[in-house]
Amino acid sequence: MIENMKLKKYFGLIMIACLCASLSFANGNTADTKTPLLADSLKKAKQNPLAPKKSCCKGSPSKAKMLAQQKKKKQ
Amino acid sequence: MKISFTNSAIALLCLTAWGCGNAGKPAAQQNADTVASQMQPTTAPAGMVLIKGGTYTMGAIDSTFTDARPLHSVTVGDFLMDEHEVTNAEFAAFVKATNYVTVAEQALNPADYPTVDPKDLVPGSAVFTPPEHPVNLNDAMQWWQYIAGASWQHPEGKNSSIKGRENYPVVHVCYTDAAAYAKWANKRLPTEAEWEYAARAGGGNSTYYWGNELHPGGKWMANNYQGHFPDKDLAEDGYKGVAPIKKFPANKYGLYDMDGNVWEWCSDFYRPDYYQHSPANNPLGPTDSYDPDEPGAVKRVQRGGSFICSEQYCIRFKTGSRGKGEVSSGSNNLGFRCVKDI
């Protein structure tokens, strides 16, 4: 009977240890869910040798710029 | 006692195994699962798509787009989004109901353009006018012309019309016009974060919103420019200039033309440095605008690129990249779509 109680006690302790370990592992991982994604992206960005060297538009032209340019063209 | 003890042990082991199994998944896979579980659609009003909110990595993977860096984690809430760009027919209904006059149709105030000859201050807008020969790509004025009389009703100038183009996206609408329409429709313009989240449709950091190939299997996925820019448009995608709505495949959320066709206004002010300190939850944009290319001009963000975007020029149709425009200026490659809060 006493041996059985001891066994239960040890087994209980092992279970608590297992539970703590699993919770801390899962917690650490979920907390970092976003980070590896970001890290992956950054890594990929660094590896990207295809950064375009070509012209990159500056957005649609503003009316003021266009009108000013027309004046220049006339001159 | 023994039975309950054994049961507890089994339950604990199961719990541990589940925890480890989930935690062991790559983060990207977990993220994809989350997005998949949030896939649309459930219910939305006709013409709109329910976008379930979530968290994603915002910004451009391509470091060329310095204003779309750094990549950063952003969370947006649920919202409804127009499934296509606002059409001429829809905008006409707004004008009919309100007698609204777009900025491109209004007289210009000489005080706003002190350096311009008052004789040149006629209502009009910017029209893509391709030259007949190759030109220096550093000078956009080689292919843009201010055309007197150009407006949403006359996209190429006073002798053109939108008759037969009712299902084309409305163009020559500046930010003020787009915001006025949105208010009338009881909607609003999307934030830049909402727009990008919707355009990505749960996808990762691929080159284009639909994947890494420009035209996978020979299929054109958006209305962009093919050929030698700006003088030789081969129109391999079937369209020279703007296309009617919904002629290219929808993205995974059921949204059409998020990439290409016409640029789309977002509600955020434009600043190239915004991503360096933007909030992680529902960012609304900075409180003012600044564009070092045109200091003093008030600019808002535009997204998605247009029919003049290509690998050769205007590469800002790629995933995460940003555009910008002065708030009172329109052009024939610029439109918008609306969103609505739930």
Automatic annotation (TrEMBL), chain A:
Renumbered to this chain, region (Disordered) spans: 45-75
Q: Which positions make up the signal peptide?
A: 1-26
**Low complexity composition bias: residue spans:** 51-69
What keywords are assigned to this protein? Signal
The identity of this protein, by name, is Secreted protein
Q: Which organism is it from?
A: Mucilaginibacter pedocola
Instruction: Give the taxonomic lineage as stored in the record.
Output: Bacteria, Pseudomonadati, Bacteroidota, Sphingobacteriia, Sphingobacteriales
UniProtKB/TrEMBL annotation, chain B:
Q: Known Gene3D superfamilies for this protein?
A: paralog of FGE (formylglycine-generating enzyme)
Q: Which SUPFAM superfamilies match?
A: C-type lectin-like
Q: Pfam families annotated for this entry?
A: FGE-sulfatase
Origin: domain of life: Bacteria
Q: Where is the signal peptide?
A: 1-23
Q: Which keywords describe this protein according to UniProt?
A: Signal
UniProt xrefs under InterPro entries: CTDL_fold, Sulfatase_Mod_Factor_Kinase, SUMF_dom, SUMF_sf
Where is the Sulfatase-modifying factor enzyme-like domain positioned along the sequence?
Answer: 46-340
Q: Which GO terms describe its molecular function?
A: formylglycine-generating oxidase activity
Tell me the PANTHER family matching this sequence. FORMYLGLYCINE-GENERATING ENZYME (PTHR23150:SF19), SULFATASE MODIFYING FACTOR 1, 2 (PTHR23150)
Annotated protein name in UniProt: Sulfatase-modifying factor protein
Originating species: Mucilaginibacter pedocola
